[in-house]
Amino acid sequence: MADQSIPEARAPRTPKAASKAGSKAAPEAAPKAASASKGEALLNGGAGDDASRAGVLSRRRLLGTAGATGLVLGAAGGAVGYAARPAEATPLASLGAGQVMFHGKHQPGILQGLQARGHLVAFDLAAGAGRKEAAALLRRWSETARRLMAGEAAQQDDTDVARDAGPSSLTITFGFGFGFFARTGLEKQRPIALDPLPDFSSDQLDKARSNGDLWVQIGADDALVAFHALRAIQKDAGRAAKVRWQMNGFNRSPGATSSPMTARNLMGQMDGTRNPKPAEADFDRRIFVPQSGSKDPAWMANGSYAVVRRIRMLLDDWEQLSVKAQEEVIGRRKSDGAPLSGGTETTEMDLEKTDKAGNLVVPINAHARITRPDQNGGAAMLRRPFSYHDGIGADGMPDAGLLFVCWQADPLRGFVTVQRKLDRGDALSKYIRHESSGLFAVPGGAAEGEYVGQRLLEG
Question: Contact 187/181 with Cβ under 8 angstroms?
Fold first, then answer.
């Protein structure tokens, strides 16, 4: 995955600021030193609680900054004391102020860096629901996404789960599955690229957790913000659609490392080193459907195709390998992601380099060798996964692995080309299991005043 950036430290937005749809979060002035009496009012839920809405420390922020503010929780009888905040104290830093715009050329959740919490959920349209109901649903979903991404409450029946948080870089992305078009009478608008993926010999797919008429990807830097969005989307579905499957994932929190770096997966390997970068000249051509000159229907302009796979990692088996053996499976050093042929993480891999015995330094079946674009006719995809852990399986092994999400302008040239080659002899295949799969057409971003998919559903 492309390197994550550490967001600039900013204080959480107040509800009043958050209500301005599409506006950027602004840093909040550092709270003034509070008197003891005001601190007690805050803690006891009195008038100070209301005042916190206007910039005074809230009870949640006060309790969460005990070390910085001098707050002391007494052991005897739960007594609480409060000391005035030192004038020289550094204001709180917060990921909550980060905001992603809903409206734009592309939908959110594609070009942003990895997010700390995520939910993937697929829906099937309800019996009797067609194009009209689907349009109304996408209109509701788009408005909810716009509001929540701006840090506002849901328009109806908000659960208050994220009341105290800022936008937390929330992204909500919508896509259409193969069956959606027959259900809505739009078969002639179904892209050829959305034809079902071929079978692969390593697949052990659960059909109940695969595909779906509609797909939603939710990501955020805060778990409660992500959950809040998930509940709002599920409630908005109403009688128009029902959940087919849902999966929950996570990544390292932005800022957890001393500097931006490629993420690691649950095998401990750096994951995403070779991801295409937006600065590359052919990035848009490989990841997004062009506005013209494409075989795709016009409504897919500036959109992309998402392949979603739940890939279980057989961690008990993997962890029995020595570090050297793990590195030979991948073709890169575990410590820093550098290729076994030498250099740093970004050094070009030397596929012809041999050791003193004449053996290839990067094994012929190493995962990193097989997946290289120059070994697959230039095939490339933007990988943006989440890790997952769903407890211990019936086999006694961790039910954990990767919620693989990759983006490309053409899945036949992207994912399918690479996966077919992996299927023929990837050393990593022995330690993973593809358990669910889906392919979704994700249209371009909605313009101001539009909802996602409007050009399809009202065209």
Answer: yes
